[in-house]
Structure formats: C-alpha cells, structure tokens
Amino acid sequence: MTHNFFESKVAVITGGSRNIGKAVATALVEQEAKVVIGDIIDTEGQETIEELNSKAGKEVAIFQHTDVTKYKDLTALFQLAESSFGGVDLVFLNAGIAVNHDVLLDPLDDEQDEKILKVNTAGIIKGTKVGVRHLAKRGAGAIVITGSTLGLEPASYTSIYNASKGAVIAWARSFQHLQNICSVRINSVCPHAVDTEFLWGFPDLSRKIFEGVAPTAEISTVVKAVLLLMEDQNRNGQVLTALPGNVIEVEEAPKIMAKTTQHLGNIPLVSPEVISELEAKYKQDFDGMMKSYFMQ
Length: 296
Ligand SMILES: NC(=O)c1ccc[n+]([C@@H]2O[C@H](COP(=O)([O-])OP(=O)(O)OC[C@H]3O[C@@H](n4cnc5c(N)ncnc54)[C@H](O)[C@@H]3O)[C@@H](O)[C@H]2O)c1
Known about the structure:
The protein is built from 11 helices and 8 strands. By secondary structure, it is of the alpha/beta class. α4 runs parallel beside α6 (159-172). Nicotinamide-adenine-dinucleotide binds at residues 14-15, 17-21, 39-41, 66-69, 94-97, 119, 123, 146, 148, 191, 193-194, 196-199.
C-alpha cells in the first residue's frame, strides 16, 4: 500500500475562496487533508467550505475572513487552524490581485500605486513570516507561494504586476537554509495565464484570451505543481512554472555567483568561516524569534 503524504495534514490557504486557491483546497481534501481558507470574499469562501464539508461528510474545511495585508488577520487564521485542527503542515499563499497593474502613466497617487504591492508582495511576505513560525512549531512543513510567469518574464503593459510577482519569486528563492534550521521548505508556483475572473484585471490580455487568441494553462496543471512542491522533500527554494499543454517546468535562478567564483579561479566570494558564523547566529536568532512569538 502506498503512503498518502497528505493524509491528516492541515493546510492554510489564502485566496482560497475560488479558482486556483479553491482548486488546491479541493485537491488537498480529496487527498484527505484538512484546509483552513482565508479570503476577503466571504460568500464564496463559505460556499467553498460547505461544498468540501458536505462532500467529505465531516468537517474538513473552515473559512475565516482574512485580509492578507494585515498581520492581525493572518495570525488569527493560523491560530484558528491550530485550535480547530491541531496545527499547520502546509501553507499556500495564493491571494493576489491584478488591478492597477500598469501604473507608470497614472497620477502620482500613493495609495493606488501601492495597492497591488500591498496584496501581492507584502501580503506574501507577511504570510510567510507567520506561516514559518507555525510550521516550525509543528516541526516541519512546506510553503508554496503563487508567483506568475510575468514575474519571471516581464511583459509590457503589466509593469507593477510583473514587479509584485518578481519580488515574491526572489523572496521564495531566499530561504533554502531554513530546511536545515526548522525543516520548512519554501517554493513558488508560477502559472501562465489561467482562464479565471482574475484575468479581467488585465483588460487587453483577457480580451485576447476570451476571443480564443491566446492559449491558457489549466487550473489542474497549477494544482499538480502546487501539490508536487508541497510533497517532494527535495524541492526547496524551487520555482515551477505551470504552462499551457499541462507542462510543468523547473525555472532555475541565474547562476551569477557561481560564474563569478569560476571567473576568479574558484576563490569563494565569502569565506567558509564567515558562513559558519552567520549560520550559528541565524540559528540563535531563529530560536529567540520562536520563543518571543509564541510567548505573546
Ligand atoms: N489567473 C491567472 O491568469 C494567473 C496567472 C498567474 C498567476 N496568477 C495568480 O494566481 C493567484 C490566484 O489567481 P486566480 O486566477 O485564482 O484569481 P482569483 O481572483 O479568483 O483569486 C484570487 C483570490 O485572492 C483573493 N484576495 C484578493 N485580495 C485579497 C486580500 N487582500 N486578502 C485575502 N484574499 C485576497 C480574492 O478574493 C480571490 O479569491 C493570484 O495570486 C494570481 O496573481 C493568476
């Protein structure tokens, strides 16, 4: 009998009321996991969990209104997962928006210009910080961050959306060391355009797509990539694209440091002693951070 990795696991999902987030929640419940969904659209969120619970015939899904731009909401969501289902093993940070995606020519408006960064970038950073603490408390876990192919290959006319997603791809690639410290892995999934309401945030692109001109990726391809990143212990700091034609590919980061080291005749850019010192200090700071977070 093959072991089901997802059985009895608890997943927190942001932006899980509909479309990609809902599809991942549904796939996880089908694999016998439990899900805690946080989103700002409450009616769809309630409908989603009622659908999941009635299909399962027991409580396997909970919804709580959560604005990912607010620590207060995020911490409450993770605490709810702990009090209801005993802890958190998996996190899917998926909430995102496309409004005001190309601000260069817009009026100089602080609030409007920062809106997309608050949700797509700061929302992911805050969700990661809270998530890491709860996964480390559990002893291990995986976080998957929703980026976009536009964050890897920026297109014209979607400038600040590209930047908001490029930032979280770099963020997701920044934590390979965490696996040794607390057994938490952070990876990113980067979908190509998927045919959801989200695309209406990009009027020109969505017009083309709904006219059938541009190919889209299937939601099922995104789900497959997310579950792969959650389950496979060898994936750490990895970026997977989810592309049309059910294609999933690893997108490697450029190897600039390695190439520079090579050009210099293989002299390391940072000495191994400095690296060990930094690692020891980081481990100490990590333990201190855990104590102070859970003492509050
Ligand atoms: N659909 C695409 O073409 C596409 C392509 C690449 C990446 N993505 C990314 O995939 C993710 C999901 O997209 P989708 O297509 O399912 O779109 P969607 O609009 O259906 O899903 C996004 C969800 O995030 C929620 N959300 C928005 N702001 C929030 C906030 N402040 N706090 C909590 N939740 C919030 C929305 O209510 C919604 O349920 C997004 O991050 C998006 O950027 C989508």
